[in-house]
Each structure stands twice: as C-alpha cells, then as structure tokens.
Design a protein that fits this description.
Length: about 60
Amino acid sequence: MTQDLSPGMRVRHPQRPDWGIGQVQSAIGHRVTVNFEHAGKVLINSDKVALTPIEESDP
C-alpha cells in the first residue's frame, strides 16, 4: 500500500483516533514520521497503516 505523503500534510491514524490530527514530518520509503496532537512523534510503517489525509477544510 503506497501512499503519496509529503512533509506538512495533515493526517489521521485510522486505528488511533485518540491521537488526533498529525502532521507528516518526513516520508522516506514506507517510513513516515508523523507528529500527532496527543501522541507526539510516531514512526509509521505505511505498508501496514494507511493514514487518512485531512483536507484543509476538514475540522
């Protein structure tokens, strides 16, 4: 599962809504570092987790 994620994008983790909105810090291959509101910086394997992009108009 390849995602088009780039630094600055806002995302949600589909299995961890309690983490809040995250901002992609880096995306190198399948390793994506995201800074979440309530969980801090988390390294995500994008082969295992499909992060949900947030549109700018979404709350």
